[in-house]
Amino acid sequence: MKKISLFVFSLFFVATATLAQDKKEKKEVQQGHTDQNKFRQMKDVLASPNDQRTASGAPGHQYTQQKVDYVMDIRLEESTNKIYGDENITYYNNSKDHLDYLWVQLDQNMRADDSKTPLATSQGASPFLTPENFKSTYLKEGKGFGFNIEKVESNGKALSHFINRTMMRVNLPKKLAPGQEFKFRIKWNYKINDINKDGGRSGLESFPDGNNNYTIAQFFPRLAVYNNVEGWQNMQFWGRSEWALEFGDYVVNLTVPEDHIVDATGVLQNEKEVLTKTQRKRWEKARKTFDNPVMIVTQEEAEKAEKGRATKTKTWRFKAQNVRDFAFASSRKYIWDAMATDVNGKTVMAISLYPKEGNPLWEEHSTRAVATTLVEYSKLTFDYPYPKAISVHSERQGMEYPMICFNFGRPNADGTYSDRTKKGMLGVIIHEVGHNFFPMIVNSDERQWTWMDEGLNSFVEILAEDVYDAELFASNPAKDITRYMGGDQSNISPIMSQGDYVKQFGPNAYSKPAAGLYILRKTIMGPELFDHAFRTYSKRWMFKHPTPADFFRSMEDASGMDLDWFWRGWFYTTDVSDIGIKTVKPLYLTDKPNDRVVKLKEQYKQYFDSLGDLVYITDKKEDANPKAMDAYANGKEVPSYIYSVEFEKPGGLVMPIIVELTYADDTKERITYPAQIWMKDENTVKRVFSSTQEIKSIKVDPDFETADVDTSNNSWPKKETTKFDKFKNKVKG
Question: Does domain 269-312+322-443 bear CATH number 3.40.50?
Answer without folding.
Answer: no
